[in-house]
Write a structure and sequence with these properties.
single chain, alpha+beta, 9-stranded mixed beta sheet, 9 helices, globular, disordered N terminus
Length: 514
């Protein structure tokens, strides 16, 4: 595959964008001035979702009350649908979140399902049983059950809005709630801070006076949104920024939310590229590149990893509005054969929900790729080449498939190459993790979001890229995060959340190439 081909370019952060928007949308569930009584019909709400002023999807929320053993149970449902483009290929994602809770907000049960064809559906069902949360999860057609500790003072994710509808905040007031977030399997403080009335133009062009409320989550501080509320605490508009893109959800009638997307759809792949000056010729074959990386009004230092391949030097600029760092990226080659193995945390060898190392197809690919080789360095090189050669269909319509699914389909983009290679390495007892950041695309003279793999060889983390298949990587990969992919959550992406903040805001210049 040519180095500059678009086909090498994937978007690990798309999963983050979608999951964050799901998370933000949880506060825009069905809303009215009161919760319906058990004998009343359910209340509903519809929102249309825009990304940078282009329609990208919709959300439907519903709330109803059921009587069970003479006890009221409040059932909240939130369905989300997206239709986007990635390098011209259609990407469709839909999710369904359902929660059941008591009148006081105690969560009883939840279910979460994500559909992203051609990948199989991912589902998680949780039932609270005393001090435990019993989870049943299905990924790639495989179901596992486990129990985790339940924090009994946590509320349902639908409870805060319901509580605030009964007693809305006034300008200058704030309130926090401890909630459980099913999408990330995390407990979090959800904080609402009411600011002041603002004149807001809604989707139909009408300007109305609404209360602006800042909403944040302690467990996921990167997720911040602004909600614009009417007097009955109904969210008329929600706004958040991700990867340099502005996401807005408007309260609309059902027929408006369900309208077919007209005109050209937003292409997230193209719209979030970071152009580079000057262009880098044959970037992936260089030994060392020094970059100047800057952001508006914030240092980019915390968004990049310091380690075996990257070093950071703070730059003192007179212009305080454009803080910068010098990022030096150096090639880290695969170690020579017969290198002494070094032990590391077992989590980098264990099977996970997305790295199914006991899956028959995954094991067969690992054995076939290794071909009887016993030296870890040689095995790693063979596995990288094997993944590069076997995943021949570059499919941008999947946000993130598991290793088991990729082993069957042998298609995908960088995320699928990365998870399959990590799983194959673990099958062969080589510790592995997934890395995320930016990669240089020569044909576009730009950096874009990318995911690759790292293997622990001879006591060091060595980067490998199954998408490129070059026997390691050059200095045109800028690392922003890494993960063992061991998160016990439907969306195993919270490790990568801090990095998403920088996307769309970075400026990258080349200072030196060796």
């Amino acid at each position: 595959m040519p180095t500059g081909s678009r086909r090498q370019f994937g978007h690990w952060w798309l999963t983050i964008l979608i999951s964050l928007l799901l998370f933000s949308a949880a506060v825009c569930d069905a809303q009215t001035s009161k919760t319906p009584a058990a004998d009343e019909p359910p209340i509903e709400s519809w929102q249309v979702i825009h990304i940078d002023n282009q329609r990208a999807g919709y959300q439907y929320g519903r709330e109803r009350v059921e009587l069970r053993d003479k006890r009221k149970v409040i059932v909240s449902e939130s369905d989300l649908f997206f239709s986007l483009n990635r390098f011209g290929q259609k990407l469709r994602i839909s999710t369904a979140l359902r929660t059941e809770e008591t009148e006081s907000g105690d969560l009883l049960r939840f279910s979460f399902e994500m559909k992203n064809p051609p990948s199989q559906n991912t589902t998680t069902v949780g039932v609270i049983n005393g001090a435990e949360l019993e989870l049943t999860s299905t990924v790639a057609g495989r179901t596992d059950k486990r129990r985790v500790a339940w924090e009994t003072d946590a509320k349902s994710p639908a409870y805060p809005d319901r509580r605030l509808r009964a007693k809305p905040l006034k300008a200058g007031e704030s309130q926090s709630f401890k909630v459980y977030v099913p999408e990330f399997n995390k407990f979090s403080q959800q904080h609402f801070a009411a600011e002041s009335q603002r004149s807001i133009k809604l989707l139909d062009g009408k300007e109305v006076s609404l209360l602006r409320v800042q909403v944040s989550f302690s467990a996921i501080p990167e997720n911040k949104s602004k909600q614009f509320m009417d007097a009955g605490w109904r969210t008329m508009m929600m706004e958040t920024e991700m990867a340099g893109l502005v996401f807005r959800a408007y309260d609309v009638p059902r027929d408006v939310a369900l309208q077919t997307i007209a005109g050209p759809e937003l292409d997230l792949a193209i719209n979030t590229l970071v152009r580079v000056a000057p262009p880098i010729v044959d970037a992936h074959r260089k030994k060392r590149i020094v970059y100047r990386v800057s952001m508006k009004e914030e240092s980019p230092e915390r968004f990049f990893v310091v380690g075996e391949t990257q070093q950071i030097k703070r730059l003192t600029d007179k212009d305080k509005t454009d803080p910068a760092i010098e990022l030096t990226v150096t090639v880290k080659p695969i170690p020579p054969i017969n290198s002494r193995p070094v032990r590391i945390d077992d989590k980098y060898l264990m099977p996970t929900r997305f790295l199914q190392t006991r899956d028959q197809a995954v094991v067969e690919h690992a054995e076939r790729a290794a071909g009887g080789e016993t030296d870890p360095s040689r095995i790693a090189a063979r596995l990288e080449k094997y993944v590069h050669e076997k995943i021949t269909k570059k499919n941008f319509s999947t946000a993130m498939a598991s290793a088991s699914e990729v082993a069957q389909s042998l298609e995908g983009d960088c995320t699928e190459h990365a998870v399959l290679l990590a799983a194959l390495l673990r099958v062969k007892k080589i510790p592995a993790r997934v890395a995320a950041g930016l990669v240089y695309v020569e044909s576009l003279q730009s950096f874009g979001g990318h995911m690759w793999t790292e293997a622990y060889l001879a006591g060091e983390w060595i980067p490998l890229d199954g998408t490129l298949g070059k026997g390691g990587i050059g200095p045109a990969h800028l690392k922003m995060a890494d993960s063992a992919m061991d998160e016990d959550a439907p969306l195993p992406v919270s490790t990568f959340l801090p990095a998403y903040q920088a996307l769309g805001k970075l400026k990258i210049e080349v200072l030196k190439v060796e």
